[in-house]
Amino acid sequence: MIVRCLLLMLAAATATAAPVRVRYPEGPARGLLVLTSVDGKPLAHGELEQWMEGPIVVGRLAFEFADGSVYEQVVRFSQRRVFRLESYRLRQHGPSFTETVDTEFDRNGRYRVTRRAKPDAEEERAEGRIELPDDVMNGLTSIVCKNVMPDGAATVHLVAFQPKPLIMDMQVGAEGVDPFRIGPLDRSASRFRLQARVTGVKGALATVVGKQPPALFNWIARGRAPLLVRFEGPLYGDGPTWRVEPTGPRWDR
Q1: Which of 70, 76, 78 is closest to 97 using CA atoms?
Q2: Using CA atoms in the order 29, 223, 250, 68, what is the torsion angle rounded to 10 degrees?
Q3: How sure is the predictor about 117, in pLDDT bands with cuts at 50, 70 and 90?
């Protein structure tokens, strides 16, 4: 019976994926962010910066936590007809995280990983080369959502490191519209569900034992210029559900 279930799951895991077409090109931008628990308690503040290096767009997302923890993600991508990831780096460390990670890889498939799964665990290292699909979108999932607005869907790929690389499918799809307010102004956002899934034999076994990754959610403000206005989900594998939203500066006087 288990073998039959595995075969059915393998058949279901063959969803096609393709690079996401550019509808809304990216450019220089900057935003201030707050990271909170789901009940609204502030845990970290940060910012998203985006700038150009010739034809390449560089995005840096960084958070500094009250306990000294740091989360930083730097992604480089091109946008000639389709979005294409060129390189990616993730660093996270500090008591807010159960695991310490320094990961980087590039379009040629070269990767380097340093990981400590638990504070008292031994450090794991891995490096090498992996063949990457054209639609790997680590760090670009909000861009995927913006470019299938207002109610579209896409299937792309992500790379996870444990510390060896593992390529996962990610299904992105709009599942509803939620209202929000800016002062007296009524606005609405498309709510996108992002579900990563380990495929193949590993994925079938993960499904059987309930170890597939949890869903993530992005809210994209509707209109002529789609904008990410809320993220909800874990920032790392077994992490807690956190919420990220735009915020404003605080003035001392």
Answers
A1: 70
A2: -60
A3: confident
pLDDT mean over 103-116: 97
Write the DSSP assignment of the chain as a string of letters: -HHHHHHHHHHHT-----PPB-SS---SEEEEEEEEETT--EEEEEEEEEEEETTEEEEEEEEEETTS-EEEEEEEEEEESEEEEEEEEEEEESTT-SSEEEEEEETT-EEEEEEESSTTSPPEEEEEE-PPPTTB-TT-HHHHHHTTTTT-EEEEEEEEESSSEEEEEEEEEEEEEEEEEETTEEEEEEEEEEEEEE-HHHHHHHHHTT-SPPPEEEEEE-SSS-EEEEEEE-SSTTPPPEEEEE-------
Tokens of 67: 């306990």
What contacts 210, CB < 8 A, 6 or more positions away?
A: none
Q: Evaluate if residue 16 carries a pLDDT over 90.
A: no
Locus of tokens 């992005």: 218
Identity of residue 99: E
- Cα separation, 136 vs 82, in Å, equals 12
Q: Is the peptide bond before 55 cis (omega within 30 degrees of 0)?
A: no
Structure token digits, residue 225: 């210029």
Using the predicted structure, report yes or no on whether residue 208 has a pLDDT greater than 80.
no
Strands 100-106 and 110-116: antiparallel
